[in-house]
Here is the input.
Amino acid sequence: MKKAMKVLLVIGLTVCIFSSAVLAASFSFNFYAKNSGLSYYTWGANGNLKTVQSQPWSMKLTSISVPSTGYGMIFAPFAYDPTLVQQGPGTWRRSTGITSTYYGSTQPAMVSYTVGTRVDNDYSTTQWCMAYGYFNADLSTFAGLN
Here is the structure.
């Protein structure tokens, strides 16, 4: 009986350990940005730990407002390594939805990531753009997040 309890305890702990890695929480962000040249605004309130090195980062935009046809915002992952460093290419967005992008030619570090954005640097007025959404350092379906 004691041996069975030990086996169940080990199985239970193993499930807890592996499920916490797989279910790394996405975090929400909201940006108000204007043309900053090639400099990014980064979301410093949260980070998301990368748990599967081979997976792309993913983002769900729930709202985006960019003026004038043709202009958009680029989003990119930034690693806390130990300061914020852009990791790989970004993805241009003008509309809501889910996107995933690979980190580039190098394997991403297994560290905490956040998201950064900038407005198209060809957009010359001082009007602010905004974007709300969710970020995950790994591939996510963002199930249950509106």
